[in-house]
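quick one
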Amino acid sequence: MNPFLEIQPEVKEALVSGKPVVALESTIISHGMPWPQNVETALAVEQVVRDQGAVPATIALFNGKCHAGLSKEQIEYFGQVSGVWKVSLRDMPYVLSQKLYGATTVAATMRIASMAGIRIFVTGGIGGVHRGAENSMDISADLTEMGQTPVAVVSAGVKSILDIGLTLEYLETKGIPVVTLGQDEFPSFYSRKSGFPSPLRLDTPGEIASLLDTKWKMGLEGSVLIANPVPAASEIRSEEMEVHIQQALQAASANKISGKEVTPFLLKYIAEHTKGESLEANIALIKHNARVGAAIATAYAKI
Ligand code: PSU
Ligand code: MN
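structure w/ pseudouridine-5'-monophosphate:
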């Protein structure tokens, strides 16, 4: 057992007895949504997972450990306190050895989930290849991590703050199956459409669980990206989002935002300039992802 890993008793019990467990990230709580919706959503998502008969494990760093499974009070803390680190893979040794509070990105959450033996992870959107990456080289460590760590990621596709086409190319290079649930087109987070066909399509959680089992039994390393389109009632048309995204990108450039600050800056800008409409879509889609992720985890646990 890794000396830096602390698994909450309920999560440990579920893993030992073969019950479905769903990992959840904490960057979305500390850096992806404003308070109090961040805490309300994190707790609601855990409840959705429980209602489906699975056990949630929200992941974060504190007291020099990687924690798989947080209490309600700990989630509230991560949602309210400022100065929580955004922790991707490269930040883990620093935040652990300095005993700081760290909220984990998709990359760091996947690595800790894998250490704990959790195979299914639910989030909203992943990091990817940014627009202009041919100059900035801004490619999220989420993608390299997905190339090597065997944890499936349930998302609502890729946000169009990123270059969706280049992100799909990168996922192909890394050997990561990209499967959209129930439609032929790859979704773009706020919208059910992206203009890109999904590399793969499956129509049920059971078929997705079978694909995961096949990939990992084959000895293939790395993740599977599962794209679950936002419910139609909560969708925002991509033409409408594009205006805000262009403005957000211009503001990021004018403010010389770089490195790990880019994604949180763009998310915050868009949330503030869409008067909460984007936040509402974000909340709806992550709850929907939690329902689907728990169903996949349940089907996978049966195999
Ligand atoms: N995209 C979203 N919401 C988020 C993130 C991305 O729509 O909260 C967060 C996730 O934690 C993701 C991280 O792993 O941002 C990616 O950051 P970066 O681009 O710096 O790797
Ligand atoms: Mn980046």
